[in-house]
Design goal:
heterodimer, A: mainly alpha, B: elongated
Chain lengths: 202, 111
């Protein structure tokens, strides 16, 4: 059986608009459209934690439904936004569980496929290095403007498509070579900040 | 693992942004299980999943909201509205009881 796939960008935008307009049936439609694919995607990456995956996806949906205006459709499509929320909640749940069960059940092998998150850092770096990396990301998040923060999230997700970065940067209507130039500059800028440990020396 | 959408409907019982929250208040106060609640609404238990996942009706547009949800899920609007109104009264009564208890406790402390 094929795994459920996330709705298209247009479907996400339409559902978001209905939600903002106050259509109460939209809650149900969002749950049916997004929860199964999000659970499938995160379950592939975190196969040992099905219950936590489900809880994280539910948490993400409740967060979005409670405050839909926190989502900016101009920066990110709804599927990616919900996935980011769910992934963040899942990593928090995993950290909580790891703290409760250490040293019997260490965290490193929780994620099969690397999708660039902090627990991946836990897997490949020492505890001190992973903590330092987390602090850098945390500092950067507080320091970057909204667009660069979105670029940072895409980098951490190992997104490679220029079109996705271009949409986030609001230059999707520019010619391709111009998009590529702007995207490269933004990625370089954020990467440089990461390399400098989150400090801004520009 | 359970069906994640059904599991979300279960979670909706305790999340105030969902219709399921009001239904839960009503069902608890009336000691109804899913079958009895569905019978009260004139629907089957499978429809309860979708109903729980809808957004909670807003006080300022209560009647319109309930009608729209009922229409969208092909439920009896009259029955649904009666349940929602009763759930709201029960919630208000509970709030009043809690406030009274707090006031009485505060007064006892003062005396």
């Amino acid at each position: 059986m094929n795994a459920p796939s996330l709705p298209t960008v247009d479907v996400g935008h339409a559902l978001h608009a209905r939600l903002l307009a106050g259509d109460l049936l939209t809650h149900r439609d969002l749950c049916h459209a997004f929860i199964p694919p999000l659970v499938a995607i995160l379950s592939r990456r975190f196969p040992r934690y099905p219950d936590l995956v489900q809880t994280a996806v539910h948490d993400a949906m409740v967060t979005y439904l409670t405050n839909p205006s926190a989502y900016n459709p101009d920066l990110l499509d709804l599927g990616r936004y919900l996935r980011m929320l769910a992934r963040r909640d899942l990593l928090n749940l995993l950290r909580l569980e790891a703290r409760q069960t250490r040293p019997l059940n260490p965290l490193p092998d929780v994620e099969l496929a690397d999708d660039g998150g902090n627990n991946v850092l836990d897997a490949v770096l020492s505890k001190e290095e992973a903590e330092a990396a987390r602090l850098v990301v945390q500092r950067l998040r507080g320091d970057l403007n909204e667009r660069d923060r979105a670029v940072l999230d895409l980098i951490l997700e190992e997104e490679r498509r220029t079109t996705v970065y271009a949409a986030v940067l609001g230059v999707a209507d520019q010619p391709e070579n111009e998009q590529a130039r702007i995207v490269k500059r933004a990625k370089d800028r954020v990467r440089k900040r990461i390399e400098r440990g989150g400090e801004n020396h520009d | 693992m359970t069906d994640p959408v059904r599991a979300m409907a279960e979670r909706a019982r305790r999340e105030s942004c969902f219709f399921g929250f009001l239904l839960e208040q009503f069902a608890r106060a009336e000691s109804l299980d899913d079958a009895a609640l569905a019978a009260q609404l004139g629907c089957d238990t499978a429809q309860l999943v979708d109903l729980r996942l809808c957004g909670a009706p807003r006080p300022e547009t209560l009647v319109t909201d309930v009608r729209e949800v009922a229409e969208g899920l092909q439920l009896d609007a009259g029955r649904l509205l009666a349940v929602v109104k009763r759930a709201r009264v029960l919630a208000q009564m509970q709030d009043t009881t809690e406030t009274t208890s707090l006031l009485m406790a505060a007064r006892e402390r003062e005396e």
